[in-house]
Amino acid sequence: MRVNIYVGRLQKALEQLTAAIRNVECELAAMKAEHDPLASHIFISRRHYRNVADTKSGKRREMIAQMSFNTACQLGFRGSLDEWERLTGAVA
Predict the structure, then answer these.
(1) 41 and 29 in a common domain
(2) pLDDT tens for each residue of 14-64
(3) Same domain (yes/no): 29, 43
């Protein structure tokens, strides 16, 4: 009789564990499916800044940094232009 009690408790615990694992898997899938536009913009801006051919005065890179900063602000970036330039690699 005691064995049946333990078996029942173990089965219930296993069912709860299985349900918890399913919940975690669903949350992970949802997190992977979510798209973070600011993170994507940071990644693209860094790559674009590295690959741009600049003028002697540096105005092209300065203009690109300003435009990408404006876009980042629209996407929720809360820092300054100096912080954005450091983040994208525009400043050493």
Answers:
(1) no
(2) 999 999 999 999 988 887 777 788 888 888 888 888 887 777 777 887 888
(3) no
Which residue segment(s) compose the domain that 21 sits in? 1-34
Q: What CA–CA distance (Å, rounded) separates 20 from 13?
A: 10
Verdict on whether the full-model pTM lies above 0.85: no
User: Rounded distance, CA 35 to CA 78, Å?
Assistant: 19
* 15 and 54 belong to one structural domain: no
Report the alpha-carbon distance of residue 11 to residue 5 in Å, rounded.
10
Per the structure, how many domains does the chain have?
2
Q: Cα separation of 20 and 34, whole Å? A: 21
What sign for the dihedral angle of Cα 57, 61, 66, 67?
positive
Does one domain contain both 69 and 81?
yes
CB atoms within 10 A of CB 5: 9
91, 79, 90, 88: which is closest to 42 by C-alpha?
A: 88
